[in-house]
Every structure is written in structure tokens, then in C-alpha cells.
Amino acid sequence: MTAMKHTALAPAERAVELIGGDLTEKSLRLHLEGLPGVDAVGLEARAGALGARSIKTTSKAWALDKIIELIDLTTLEGADTPGKVRSLVAKAITPDASDLTTPRVAAVCVYGDMVADAVAALGSAHSAGGDDGINVAAVATAFPSGRASLSVKIADTAEAVVAGADEIDMVIDRGAFLSGRYGLVFDQIVAVKEACRREDGSYAHLKVILETGELTTYDNVRRASWLSILAGGDFIKTSTGKVTPAATLPVTLLMLQVVGDWYRLTGERIGVKPAGGIRTSKDAIKYLVTVAETVGEQWLQPHLFRFGASSLLNDVLLQRQKLRTGRYSGPDYVTID
Amino acid sequence: MNRLVIPKTYKLYIGGKFPRSESGRVYEIATAKGTFLANVAKASRKDAREAVVAARAAVTGWSGATGYNRGQVLYRIAELLEGRRAQFVDEIRASEGVSVSAAERQVDAAIDVWVWYAGWADKYVQVAGNGNPVSGPFFNVSTPESTGVVAIVAPQESSLLGLASVVAPALVSGNTVVVLASETAPLSAISFSEILATSDVPGGVVNILTGSAAEVAPWLASHADVNAIDLAGAGSLEWVDLQIAAAETLKRVLAPEVGVPAPSLERITFFTETKTVWHPKGII
Amino acid sequence: MTFLEYAPAPESTAILNLRKSYGLFIDGAFVDGRGTPFQTISPATEVPIAEIANANGADVDAAVTAARRAYERTWSKLSGADRGKYLFRIARLVQERARELAVAESLDNGKPIKESRDVDIPLVAAWFFYYAGWADKLDYAGLGPSPRALGVAAQVIPWNFPLLMLAWKIAPALAAGNTVVLKPAETTPLTALIFAEILQQADLPPGVVNIITGAGDTGKALVNHGDVNKVAFTGSTAVGRAIAKSTAGTGKKLTLELGGKAANIVFDDAPIDQAIEGIVNGIFFNQGHVCCAGSRLLVQENVHDEVISRLKHRLSTLRVGDPLDKNTDVGAINSRQQLERIQELSEVGEQEGAERWSPACELPTTGFWFAPTIFTNVSTSHRIAREEIFGPVLSVLTFRTPAEAIAKANNTPYGLSAGIWSDKGSRILGVADKLRAGVVWANTFNQFDPASPFGGYKESGYGREGGRHGLAAYLEARGWNSPVPSEGARA
Predict the structure, then answer these.
(1) Is the minimum CB–CB distance between A52 and chain C shorter than 8 Å?
(2) Which spans in B212-264 are helix H?
(3) How many angstroms separate the CA atoms of B234 and C214, rounded?
(4) Complex ipTM
């Protein structure tokens, strides 16, 4: 600990602006430790209250379409193949073949080595940096554990960007964070952000996965969220989906409170992505309510809020069919991807 | 050759000092057979007011002391009473007209009452308090604490034991006291104040007034800075009026008793307030 | 469309099976009252709900007589175990009819359905369950062996938590072996009358609980009835004071839960987001019609602006409107009279120089409504910092040091509740020690539980409701074994 006190950190723009002076391990630590604490019971009670909103009829119809528009349709299996990715992409483009008014999802999310397959499968449906179309997101930086050297993480990221990834979902080094080496976590995010830079000078969007299930405490989640924003993250994301618990409503609420604080402080909007464990429309609507009532409805756009999910989409489609037809639908009436 | 004795000037006891009544008034105390014993200060409403001020000023220190500390201070009273037993026996015999053995019994009982209550100071919270198993992630505990300033009308008879039996329980939890001593037999109360003054009881914790309870009690009952009133010895007064006056600021009122109140935990807890504290329990 | 304008999600009133008119519940049956009946209305719409009987002196006498008879002949002869079984039955019936009771409560009182459904009615059932178990365990209540019931309890309750206050009163009274005559508030009698039907379903012996409706005169006749042994009142300090005077010298045991002006103290190290929630919950829960509401916000001066800015942002998301809509956060003010009092004190606040703010919110045109309001720049000498407003109005004051916070918090004739927000454990416990209030919520607010004693210091009343302590209000100790040797035992 003594050695790290005055170690200089990468001069990320936001951090320099906010913390000022020569950015060091020590100044970063003091900043993070100065954040207000979180009372777990109060946070969970608030999340519970938000989750108890009753969203009916027209509001529900709006919410179901919105959820689809915010989904990062995800496959992150060791057994992923080009065929599996093509199937996923097809679902992303046409979620419900029985109702072509169904919106498309925001992005497909795959491992880095599958990016080229996803881009190819999307074809003209790929946003490729534009406002329309579906993004390709790649998990990177030795996902999900993050246990690799920085050079490997940078290479992992850069290759995915070159292959056409619009978004990079990186993981932070939870070991470094839990041992108090905030500067190391910070520098790595700055480095990965730089690896998101394309040849034309633009950047792939950087989503920073905190893996909140391993950080465990809400105070840690607040600090890690803040650290990730300071280091340049465009999004903060709860989980890899490979650790339990993954996304929870209280954790997401807390991260939304952080981006709300950041907005009030700087006027800049940071995105939030709960990922893992959100399987039903009912659950997803709770998240929409939570977003709307904390940071506001303007956050309910794909560049500011995402669901990292796979099975959620089909449940939303079933609910949509129920609203459309007035009768309950069944799993044979939606496609498996 | 008989030595000419030096009689005592019996004064009030307020804020650890022995003032005369600001009114300058005294009244005469005689033996049961009518022999003059003493001129005793006749407290006025202004003396009562001063006593309440002194009692209020002493609340923070006395109620803030640990139970262990208060227990030792109260036990010290018993020690000093024991040492001056003979003096109290003489005074009680003279002013109440009772036999030596009856006076001795009274002094001994008073000493025992102080010892009994002294032992409660660091225990009553355990017995009257409670950890509460609420159905949620909360720590929840109820503890009694002193109510503040207690005005007391002491029993008219059994002057020393009566005084001990009403003052001691109020002190246990940390209340401070303004007590109207037995009107007809006030001498041992005044001598008792000398014990208080030389013991470890901080000035203002016990304030003793002598005089007409009928005159002074209404001022205490209606005083907004008095939190509770013990009417133990007020049975012969217009005590319902006192209770009505006390209702103006919702004072806690303990009704008159016949004779000397028996020692009881209830007399301690009556002058306490139960405070319940909640706090969330979370590990993440 | 905007998502935040959630589509209406009204709770259906089809579950209700209300009568056109309700009599008095005396001796196990509904009977006509001898006074002039009155309407109970929905404060959200001013539409009448039902006609309610008005008990006059003779009716009060009939109810007390029935309670006395039931006490002498039935209830005092039952075992504690059997009394407990009746209370368990009542608890279950309340659970079974919970939704119906919640809808009726919100209709009659104006409180949001989410509160009646998730707070009031579940607590009612919990209260009966809790005290049911005490009925055969009174020896363990801390009052010594075989404590005695008092007899007939006269209970008068307020309109802010109608059925919950009924449960707070009736459950411990019956568990301890008393019989009851209860008068609900005249603006909110409905759930008490449905509760009377529940007592019939439970087959509670006639006369054990009698429910009489009416206004202040009925309550006065009840508490002053000569054959009542116990008076329990929850309501304003003014009425409590009058009851304390009128029962003086009668030997009636009296417990009072009266007004409050609680300080909610926010230190600069508070868990800020939860503190904001606690402030909101503290004053806007139940439209601020809460005796223990955190109506005085004491904020450490160095975080005042930050707290107020966050608070205003949070208030902008409060949903005021139809009490029966499941998304309503703040419902209707209970009565025109109460609305006028809130309006008057708020105007006084402005005249005294405090700064008034409310979020933009559209209020319905019929019914009684008041937007959530905060006053900043309030001083301890302002009326809105001293008088209980009993509405959705928060007065914000500042302090510089913990000692000043404690002094300001205690600077009131009331002493019911207080809040503390800080991340520092020793400060929380230290400050809690010094606050002169019967309930101290640290890093939380407005929590209630049948196991937790509730009640005030000073002019907030005396006695405790809830927990083991709540039993003491309905029992008389027979005394312990002689604690010290009697006079003369010493050689």
C-alpha cells in the first residue's frame, strides 16, 4: 500500500477534470473513499418499491417494445459456432416472424472471435457506426475472469474492434479492486479505452463490466462505478452473466444513482447495462420503471440503457402476442434462436 | 452541669445549598406534646421555581451518569444514614412522638430502602427494556430512561422512611427531584439534606422543600418544566386538582397512596420513558 | 406518450360488499343509533360511501353495559389460551379479507392503495397474531405473577390509520382479558364496521368488542362513562389533554398517543440516497397524516444545498392522485377541515418568510388535495417548525454540529419520534441516547412492528403500544414478593 500512494495514473480526461492536479493512486483513492455510503436495507427497500409499480395496458405495450429495443441479444458459450451466431443474428433482425411490427434489438453480443461472423450475418442490418441498425458488441479483456496480462486484454479488444465490433464489453480486474489497487483497475480501463480507437479516430463504445456479484458490497459497486466512469467508460454494466448473483434491481438502481450524480455534476450521460438473470418481461419492466423514476425517461434509449439477456426476448414476445390477441400464447409460438 | 445545646436552623435544600425561603417565612414545629422544636422554612412558589431550575440543571449530569455510578452514589446515602442513625432516631422520636424502637425501625427501614433501590440503578434497564424481534432486517431495542424532573409530595407520616420511599425510586433511573417533605414532621427531611450535601449526590439532583404542600404543590403540578409528579403523600390535598393541573403539559402522574409506598420496580419504571431505537441490519 | 405517465392501474372496488347504512355494533349485533346519522365520504371524490349511525349518550351506555356484562360473564372467565384462539381467528380473517379491507380503507381515508395494501392491513393482521400469542403468557409480561385485566376499555382512535389504530387498541386489550368499546373517527368508520363483521365471523362472544360511531361528543361520553376502567386515546394533544383532565381522579388507567413534530436529522456523512428516501417516506407517507412524521428536517449546513437539490428531484417523481390507483404515492387529504388547516399553516409559513416549494403536479378538481410541499429557510421560531401540520409539508432547518442538532431536535414540547442519518455508528448511538423521543429511527424511518413499542415523551403522551410494553397498558400488576424486609424485621 505504501508503494502505491503517489504512483501517477493515466491522465484520463474526466478524472483530471474532476479530481484535478496530478492524478495519482492516492488522489483517486481519496476521491473514491469520499463517496457517500450506501445503506443496503434502504437501497433494497427503494428497489422493492420501484419494482411494485403496476404497469398496465398502453404503458405495458410501450414498455414491451422498449425492452426489445434495449436488448443486447447475447450468446456467450464455449460452444458458440458461426451457425449459432447466424441464428442469433436472424432473431435479432426478426424477433417475431408472426409480427413484423416487432422492433429489432439494439445489439448482438458475442465473444471477440465471433465478431466477424456476426457482422457478416447482419449484413445491411449492421449499424456500422450509424444511428440505424443493429450493433455488434464483443466481450473482451479475457472475459469473464479478466485474469490476463494487460497486453493480452489490449490485443483482445483491438482485434474485436478491427473485426467490426461497435461496442466492447470489458471486465474490470476484480482482484485488483478488492485488494485496493484502484489505480491498476483505472489504468487498465484507460488502456482498453484507447484500444477501442479505430483507425479513423473514432472509438468503439466501451461498456465496463463491474461483476457486482464479486464486488459483493454496495459501497464497492458505487466506487467501482465511479472509477469506471472516471477512467472513460461509456457504459457501466453489472455482470458477465457467469457469476451469481448477476444483475439485481438494487445494484442497477445504485448504478443509475451514480450516473444520475455524474449527470448533475458534469451534464454528461453515462449508460447502464444490467446483464444476466433478467428473464421475464415483468422483471424487465421493473428496470424500465427504475430508470424512468431515477435518471429519467431520456435514459430509455439504446445508447444509454441496455439489457444483457438471451431468454428475456422470447418472454417479451409472448407478452406482446398476448396484448395483441387478448389470449395467452405459448413457447411454440416464438422461435428458439 | 448541663451544657446549653445549640439548636439547628432548619432551612430549605435547593441546588446543593441551604437557603432560607425567599419569602422569609417560617412555621413552627412542635413535639407531639406541643413543645417547641424548631422554626422551619415555609417555602414559597418562588422557592419551588428555583428548585425546579436547580433540578433541571442537574438532569444532564445525573441522567448521563452510568447506572453503576448512580448505584454507588445511592448506596453512599445508606452508608451515611447508618452513620448518623442516632441523630435521626432522636429527631423522629421528637417530631413524630413515637417510641425509640419505632423510630429505630423507621431509620433502619429507610436505610434498607436506599440500599434496595441503589442496587437497581444498573439493572432496571435490563429488566424493563427489551430486544424486539421485528419482522424485518432491523436491529430494534427498547430501553427505559429517566423522564426528567419529578415533583414529589412525600408521605406525611413516617417522615424519613416516607421520604426515602418516594425519592430513591425516582433517582434510580436518573431523574432529578423536587420533593415537598412531610409538612408536620419535616425535621428528618432537612437533616437528610445534610446527608445529601455531604454525600456524592450532585447539587440539584434532590431539592427538598418544607412548608405547606397545599400552597406549593399546585405550582409544581402546573410547572411546564416538570415532567412528572408523584402524589404519594397528597391524599389529604385537593389532589384531583393537582392532577388536572398536571394534565396541561401531559405530566406523568402517580396517584396518592395510603401510608408509605412499598419498594417496587414499578415506582422506578413509572418515572421512565421507553425509547425504541431502530437501525437496519445489512452486511452488503 | 411518456412512459412515466403510467396508464391508470386502479384497484377494483368490486371486491367491496358495502351496506347502504351501518348501525352501531353493540353486544354482537348491529343496532340503530339514537343520534342523527351521518355520511362517510371518499375524500378523493367527496362522493358519499355509506350512512353511519351516530351514538348518543344512551347508546354509549348500552355499549359499555354490554362490554361490562361480557367482561363479567364471559371474557374474564375464559382461559388465556381461548382468548388467544379468538385473536388468532381474527388475524386469519383479516388476512383472508385483506384486499377488501385495503380497498375500503383507501376509499374512506384517501390513502394510497399501495399503503393500505402493503402496510396498514398486513400490520393489522400482524398485530392480532402477535398479541394472540400473549394471551396465555401474561405471567411473562414483566408485571409479576398473574397480572389482572382492568375491565372495560374505552378506546378512541384517529382517522389517519383507521384499521391499524383499531388493531393497536383492540389486540392487546383482548389479549390481556379486557372487553372493549371502541369509537373510530367520524371521517373513517368504514373498516371498523367491516371489522365488526369479521368479529361475527370469528364468533367472538357478544359484547367483548363493541364499536360505536359518532363524532367528538360520542368519544367524550365514552371516555367519561363511569363504568369504564381504562381509557386509550390516539389523536391530537389538545384532545388528549382534555381527556387527561376529565379522567383525573377517576382511577381510570389512561394511555395517550398524541401529536409530534419529529426531527429527521441528516448528517453530512449520511448514506445520501437512502436519506432522501427516508425524508420522503418520513413526511409524505400517508400524506403526512402521521403523528410520528419527520416533519422537521434538520440538515447539516454543509450538505443543505445538496440534500435539497436531491430532495426536489425526488419529489418530482411522486405521483399524487387517485388513492385506488396502484401507482399513487400520495393520496387525498382526509377531510376538508384538515385541508384547511394545512393550507392555513402553509400560508403562515410563507408569511413568516420561509421559502415554499412544490413539484409541478396536477391535482384533481374534486376532493381534498394538497401538493407535497417543502419549506426551506425555516427557523426554530417559525410556527411551521413548532406546530404539528399533519399534512405533506416539510420544514427544513439547518444545524452546524451534532450538539446543535440534538438541541434543536429536542426543542419542542413533543417527543414522539426522531430520525438520524449517518454512516458513523457511534454517533448514531450517541445521538439516539440524547434525543427525547420514544421512537428513534436511525438510517430508516416510519417502520412499525407489533413487537416494537411505540409512544411518546412529554406532550406526545404516555404509555406504549406494541411489544411487551404494550400489554402493561391493559394490565394491573398484583405485585411481586415483598422485595425488602418489612419495617422491624431487622434485629
Answers:
(1) yes
(2) 213-222, 239-247
(3) 38
(4) 0.96
Could you tell me the residue ranges of all domains in chain B?
26-280
The torsion defined by the Cα of A281, A286, A290 and A292, in degrees rounded to 10, comes to 50
User: Would the CB atoms of C9 and A66 count as touching at under 8 Å?
Assistant: no
C-alpha span between C52 and C213 (Å, rounded): 7
DSSP string for residues in B65-117? S-HHHHHHHHHHHHHHHHHTHHHHHHHHHHHH---HHHHHHHHHHHHHHHHHH
Under DSSP, the state recorded for C439 is E
Closest among C203, C228, C232 to C78, alpha carbons compared: C203
> Into which CATH architecture does domain B26-280 fall?
3-Layer(aba) Sandwich (3.40)
Look up A117 and say whether it is catalytic: no
DSSP C340-404: HHHHHHHHHHHHTTPEEE----PPPSSS-----EEEES--TTSGGGTS---SSEEEEEEESSHHH
CA dist C415 and A159 (Å) reads 67
Of A160, A103, A174, A177, nearest in space to A133 by CA:
A103
C8 chain-A contacts, CB cut-off 8 A = 56
pLDDT tens figures, C33-71? 999 999 999 999 999 999 999 999 999 999 999 999 999
Q: Are B268 and B74 in contact (CB under 8 A)?
A: no
Residue C291 annotated to the active site: yes
Q: Say which residues have a Cβ less than 8 Å from residue B5's Cβ, sequence separation at least 6.
A: none
Q: Residue B88: which of B202, B13, B7, B195 has the closest Cα?
A: B195
What chain A holds in terms of domains, given with CATH numbers, is 10-325 (3.20.20.70)
Neighbours of B258 (CB within 10 A): 8
Q: pLDDT tens for residues A28-58?
A: 999 999 999 999 999 999 999 999 999 999 9
Alpha carbons C463 and C178: distance in angstroms, whole number: 17
Whole-angstrom distance, CA of residue C203 vs CA of residue C478:
31
The SS3 of residue C441 is strand
- Residue B28 CA, distance from chain mean position: 23
What CA–CA distance (Å, rounded) separates B229 from B224? 12
Output the CA–CA distances (angstroms, integers) from residue C27 to C60, C64, C139, C167, C186, in the order listed: 12, 10, 30, 19, 21
CA atoms within 13 A on the CB side of A31: 22
Residues C414, C456 contacting (CB under 8 angstroms): yes
Give me the residue from A38, A55, A254 closest to C6, CB to CB. Answer: A55
Residue C119 DSSP label: I
Number of Cβ pairs closer than 8 Å across B and C?
A: 135
Amino acid at B271: F
Q: Does the distance separating the beta carbons of C277 and A46 come in below 8 Å?
A: yes
| A172 within 8 A of A185, measured Cβ to Cβ | yes
- Minimal Cα distance from C274: which residue of B? B280
pLDDT(A20) > 90: no
Looking at residue A4, its pLDDT comes to 53
Cα A74-A80-A85 angle, rounded to 5 deg: 60
Please write the tens of the pLDDT for every residue from C120-148.
999 999 999 999 999 999 999 999 999 99
Search chain C and give the residue with CA nearest A296.
C4
In sequence order, what are the residues at sequence separation of 6 or more whose Cβ sits closer than 8 angstroms to the Cβ of residue B61? B202
Residue A55: list chain C partners with CB under 8 A: 6-7, 9
Give the C-alpha separation, C437 to C454, whole Å.
10
Dig out the grid coordinates for A321 from the structure: 402476442
The CA distance from B16 to C37, in Å, is 62
The catalytically annotated residue of C105, C186, C291, C388 is: C291
Nearest-angstrom CA–CA distance, A322 and A336: 18
- The CA-atom distances, in angstroms, between C283 and each of A313, C289, C304, C329 are 40, 8, 17, 12
